[in-house]
Design brief:
Pfam families: Pro_isomerase. With 261 residues, the protein is α+β, with helices and mostly antiparallel strands. It is built from six helices and eight strands. An eight-stranded antiparallel beta sheet has the order 3-4-6-5-7-2-1-8.
């Protein structure tokens, strides 16, 4: 499979963050539909400056570079949800190329604040770590600099790069900006539960694991009247989804224009 085919099979990204590091910026595009909790966690921590100053405490050549722990030990960090959150896997998001952004964890459903960027393909991580974004554009070339670092036996760089600041260019969630404004005004941040996150109308309603084409469809089909009603409901749902998508695209353009002014 060619690299073009791999990229074409990936879902459309929505939302963009620039992570400015001491070895150059990383332009990151997000998948909030496919990994809503991971993306919300990442964006909100970026807006709060949580990652500012974090070092890349673990770097393995041609594999990955890990960061997101304010203690710099690889044992710290907290999510915005106040506890560890669940993994989010999707059949169209796989570790097939470099530049993927994924949650670092100690095991199933133990995601916090730490994340890593892949420096090469690593398919053995599929369904073990949540992929929620990817590095894009010319900033992909900055990934080569991680491979040039001298590391010790514990994969810790001798001179560890660090995150200087995170710049959210396009926010994929409406309410995060309001939460940031409330915090600036001295009000406590209101955290959303996983139910609030998953009720976002822009999030994918499809199963994260798509059924295989090799599995025969043995489910009984409804009679004609029920089928017609289902078709009508499906058409209405498609219309609503298209309207929501159009509104979302318009809001993203407004944010981009505002950033440029």
């Amino acid at each position: 499979m060619s690299s073009l085919t791999v990229y074409a099979n990936e879902p459309v990204t929505r939302g963009k963050v620039v992570v400015h590091t001491s070895i150059g910026p990383l332009d990151i595009e997000l998948w909030p539909k496919e990994a809503p909790m991971a993306c919300r966690n990442f964006v909100q921590l970026c807006l709060e400056g949580y990652y500012d100053g974090c070092i890349f405490h673990r770097v393995i050549r041609d594999f990955m570079a890990q960061t997101g722990d304010p203690t710099g030990t690889g044992k710290g960090g907290e999510s915005v949800f106040g506890s560890k959150f669940k993994d989010e896997f999707h059949s169209r998001l796989r570790f097939t190329h470099r530049g993927l952004i994924a949650m670092a964890s100690e095991g199933p459903d133990t995601n916090g604040s730490q994340f890593f960027v892949t420096l090469d393909r690593c398919e053995w991580l599929d369904r073990k770590h949540t992929i929620f974004g990817k590095v894009t554009g010319n900033s992909l070339y900055n990934l080569h600099r991680f491979n040039e670092l001298e590391v010790d036996a514990a994969d810790r760089p001798e001179f560890a790069p660090r995150i200087e600041r995170c710049e959210v260019l396009l926010e994929p969630f409406d309410d995060i900006e309001a939460a940031g404004e409330a915090e600036a005004a001295g009000q406590p941040r209101a955290l959303l539960s996983s139910h609030d996150v998953l009720d976002d109308p822009r999030l994918s309603k499809k199963s994260a694991i798509e059924p295989s084409a090799d599995v025969p469809d043995t489910a009984p089909r409804p009679a004609g009247g029920a089928s017609d009603a289902q078709d009508a409901r499906a058409a209405d749902a498609a219309t609503d989804e298209a309207a929501a998508e159009a509104a979302f695209e318009a809001r993203m353009l407004e944010q981009m224009h505002a950033k440029r002014q």
